[in-house]
DNA sequence: GCGGTCACATGA
DNA sequence: CATGTGACCGCG
């Protein structure tokens, strides 16, 4: 045998102190089974931990070692390229390798090792009434309790347990419990062959039902699910018992995959004919996939230009080459209709991945991918980690969406992960949007990305007419309603003709805060300092904090000046609904917001009702802005374009433009011409003006100059440190430490700008103080190592101070 | 991340 | 000195 190899294992602990490989001996009987990516159970100090093999080293390099205790899977969960990806994630987003590994595997993958205890023959002598006596009694009474359970019950038993194990009074053994279980169903099989079957049937005598069951199973070659047998023959399980006892039939467990969507039966849908523009886009993408060289496209197509059909056909051509494809969509647009479209085109070659699946369902979809049962994945952000072995194409639809940035560690950006995997696999990335992220459009301008434009709508419909209403004039003219005269008139028209209306409430940031019109008092959450929002449920007027859930009654008089002019201000969907009921009492309204769509599937139900024309007006927030397509909608109203413009965020203009453009795109996608009314107190703002004309390119030209002037993306990348602590001075101190160290490290570097310590826009969340330090730099490669050092050191100090420090590399939003 | 251990305070 | 408590050490 060649010289012994030792496994380098990353243990499942998310602490920077242990974020390095540890060496373990591979027992001979596992030599064949372990490879890079294998999940193992290893001894780690006094504990047993799950870990992943990330490499091997030779004996000479190893100083200390213990043997691997267990190999946890038949097939390694991670492929070597995923191990490499985990390494990259940890470097790019400054997280531990363990955290990266966890992000790229389905939740529920984690196994739990538990320790069982058995009393040896020799019993300990214990003082009656002592801790030891209690423990001994517990061990007798519930011998199946694990060591972990006992310690959780009475922590003071821990040292006794340790002593008894050392003295040989207790014998430990461990058991592994998989997180998500492989689901099995019980099946029945006839054990008899043709020679013994007649005799057995005879022997059953007058047991008619038993004979039926036996004959039924004898006719089948395969095992049949028990519940099918019972329902088919309308037998009960008691019929089976004698057959099992006689050994004529046997039970066996068969693995099944949970399939949350089911297989779509019937004819697979055929590809649709492509327009000239679609054909041109398809040809370029398919050629890139063929070339097997990594390449990224920006597919910039106006709403209704038919991007999805291009995606579908590009995926088909990729799959035809024996390679796999990943399609990312924003979580919100991962609707049943969307999934159905893929299932209809590709049948059961498709796996679906999103956050609303149960842990078991996720695990099973993941296994279908890993085992090669499917070639296509449709999913939200994390689907970019699908464990395919040869990816040909990755599509990021609506690539500008903020939801492509993960909000906890590792705070990855799906678009970047796609581009990294493309380099690993020689794959093509397609970033699709009508309103691309400014960065993406800029990279296309610079030539790093190839841009394909689709500027015409497939059906040749005209873009909707957009009117911008200056709300300041309305107020001057004495219209105190939230609907301008124009919007109200247009709505009346639609209600008469029976056409439908979508009302969009741009509620980002400041919603319905409560303000005293006499003294300016604003009701805030005592914990978070965030303006409370007004809610009305079952006649009860309440103020609630959107971040921590705090609630109080709506005050009648101002707590500050005792005046009686306290009003809720801004506009929430509920208030618009009330106003609608007042102005148009005969109209049916469907309201969609967090309150009405919390239940599972309620989102889809409401949309279906609107589609069935059970209501003339659909009223909602961002969640109705995209992906919707209703033939009978001819009017879209935006109550106020302003709210998102004044969010303290450099992307506010971009977001507002994108939102307004998307919303406007909802109108008139079919035969009927569409109209859009945007109300604003700042109608002259360029984001509003360019959205009105649906001019992305002009908006881009304008905004890019703004970004350049103030050194914001795409000219610099932003990384944000957030120091969090219940103690304000400590939070501030850590943030200042970060700032000071960064200033020292980057002294004299004009490619780096440090924005000093400032209270975070959400300065108090859940009773904790938050301070931000933001670094702007040109190339992460040139600053990453320094930022990492500062982060690791300061994070440790923050922990000592009872708080924590988090980091967001390439932050999309500073919160 | 966390169990073990060590240094030190507290109390009789 | 026994016992409790908090910091920190090191895991292969």
TrEMBL record:
In this chain, Zn(2+) 2 is annotated as bound at: 525, 528, 545, 548
**Keyword Glycosyltransferase assigned:** no
**Gene Ontology cellular component terms for the protein in this record:** primosome complex
Query: Which Pfam families does the UniProt record give?
Result: DEAD, Helicase_C, PriA_3primeBD, PriA_C, Zn_ribbon_PriA
Annotated Helicase ATP-binding domain residues: 288-454
- Which reactions fall under this protein's catalytic activity? Couples ATP hydrolysis with the unwinding of duplex DNA by translocating in the 3'-5' direction; ATP + H2O = ADP + phosphate + H(+)
Enzyme class, broadest EC rank: isomerase
Oligomer status and interactors:
Component of the replication restart primosome.
What the entry lists under PANTHER family is as follows: PRIMOSOMAL PROTEIN N (PTHR30580)
Q: What is this protein called?
A: Replication restart protein PriA
The organism of origin for this protein? Tumebacillus algifaecis
């Amino acid at each position: 045998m060649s010289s012994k190899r030792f496994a380098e294992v990353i243990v499942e602990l998310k602490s920077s102190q242990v974020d390095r490989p540890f060496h373990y001996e591979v027992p001979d009987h596992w030599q064949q089974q372990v490879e890079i990516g294998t999940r193992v159970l290893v001894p780690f100090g006094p504990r047993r931990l799950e870990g992943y093999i990330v490499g091997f080293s030779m004996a000479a390099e190893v100083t200390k070692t213990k043997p691997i205790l267990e190999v946890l899977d038949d097939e390694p969960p991670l492929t070597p390229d995923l191990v490499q990806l985990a390494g990259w994630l940890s470097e790019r987003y400054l997280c531990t390798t363990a955290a990266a590994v966890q992000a790229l595997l389905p939740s529920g993958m984690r196994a739990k090792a538990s320790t069982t205890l058995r009393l040896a023959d020799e019993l300990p002598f214990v003082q009656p009434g002592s801790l030891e006596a209690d423990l001994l009694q517990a061990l007798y009474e519930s011998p199946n309790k694990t060591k972990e359970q006992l310690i959780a019950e009475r922590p003071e038993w821990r040292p006794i347990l340790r002593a008894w194990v050392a003295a040989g009074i207790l014998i430990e053994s461990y058991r592994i419990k998989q997180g998500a279980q492989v689901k099995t169903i019980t099946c029945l099989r006839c054990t008899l062959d043709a020679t013994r079957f007649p005799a057995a049937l005879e022997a059953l005598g007058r047991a008619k039902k038993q004979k039926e069951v036996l004959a039924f199973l004898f006719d089948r070659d395969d095992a049949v699910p028990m519940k099918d047998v019972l329902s088919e023959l309308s037998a009960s399980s008691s019929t089976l018992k004698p057959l099992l006892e006689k050994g004529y039939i046997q039970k066996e467990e068969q693995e099944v995959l949970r399939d949350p969507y089911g297989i779509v039966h019937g004819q697979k849908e055929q590809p649709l004919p492509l327009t000239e523009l679609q054909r041109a886009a398809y040809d370029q993408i398919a050629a890139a996939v063929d070339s097997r060289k990594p390449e990224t496209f920006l597919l910039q197509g106006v709403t209704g230009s038919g991007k999805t059909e291009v995606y579908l056909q590009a995926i088909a051509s990729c799959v035809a080459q024996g390679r796999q494809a990943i399609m990312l969509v924003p979580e919100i647009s991962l609707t049943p209709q969307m999934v159905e479209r893929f299932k209809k085109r590709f049948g059961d070659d498709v796996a679906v991945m999103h956050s609303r699946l149960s842990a078991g369902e996720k695990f099973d979809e993941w296994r279908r991918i890993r085992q090669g049962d499917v070639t296509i994945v449709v999913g939200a952000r994390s689907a970019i980690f699908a464990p395919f072995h040869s990816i040909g194409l990755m599509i990021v639809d609506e690539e500008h969406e903020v939801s492509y940035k993960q909000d906890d560690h590792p705070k990855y950006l799906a678009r970047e992960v796609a581009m990294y995997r493309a380099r690993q696999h020689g794959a093509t990335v397609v970033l699709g949007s009508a309103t691309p992220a400014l960065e993406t459009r800029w990279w296309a301008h610079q030539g790093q990305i190839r841009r394909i434009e689709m500027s015409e709508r497939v059906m040749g419909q005209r873009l909707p007419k957009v009117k911008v209403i200056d709300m300041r004039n309305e107020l001057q003219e004495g219209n105190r309603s939230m609907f301008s005269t124009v919007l109200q008139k247009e709505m009346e028209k639609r209600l008469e003709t029976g056409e439908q209306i979508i009302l969009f409430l741009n509620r980002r940031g400041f919603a319905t805060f409560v303000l005293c019109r006499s003294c300016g008092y604003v009701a805030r959450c005592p914990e978070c300092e965030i303006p409370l929002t007004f809610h009305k449920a079952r006649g009860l007027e309440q103020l609630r904090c959107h971040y921590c859930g705090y609630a109080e009654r709506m005050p009648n008089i101002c707590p500050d000046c005792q005046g009686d002019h306290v009003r809720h201000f801004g506009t929430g969907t509920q208030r618009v609904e009330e106003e609608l009921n007042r102005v148009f009492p005969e109209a049916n309204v469907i309201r969609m917001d967090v309150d009405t769509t919390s239940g599972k599937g309620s989102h889809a139900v409401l949309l279906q009702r609107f589609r069935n024309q059970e209501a003339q007006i659909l009223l909602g927030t961002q969640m109705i802005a995209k992906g919707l397509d209703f033939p009978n909608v001819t009017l879209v109203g935006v109550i106020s374009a302003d709210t998102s413009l004044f969010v303290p965020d450099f992307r506010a203009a971009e977001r507002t433009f994108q939102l307004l453009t998307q919303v406007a795109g909802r109108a008139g996608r079919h035969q009927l011409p569409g109209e859009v009314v945007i109300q604003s107190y700042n109608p002259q703002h360029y984001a509003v003006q360019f959205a009105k004309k649906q001019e992305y390119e002009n908006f881009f030209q304008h905004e890019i100059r703004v970004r350049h002037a103030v050194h914001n993306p795409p000219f610099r990348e932003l990384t944000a440190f957030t120091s969090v602590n219940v103690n304000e001075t400590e939070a501030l101190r850590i943030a200042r430490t970060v700032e000071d160290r960064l200033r020292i490290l980057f002294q004299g570097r004009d490619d780096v700008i440090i924005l000093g310590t400032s209270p975070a826009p959400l300065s108090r969340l859940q009773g904790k103080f938050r301070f931000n330090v933001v670094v702007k730099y040109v190339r992460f490669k040139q600053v990453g190592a320094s930022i990492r050092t500062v982060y690791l050191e300061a994070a440790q100090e923050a922990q000592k101070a009872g708080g924590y420090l988090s980091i967001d590399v390439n932050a999309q939003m500073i919160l």
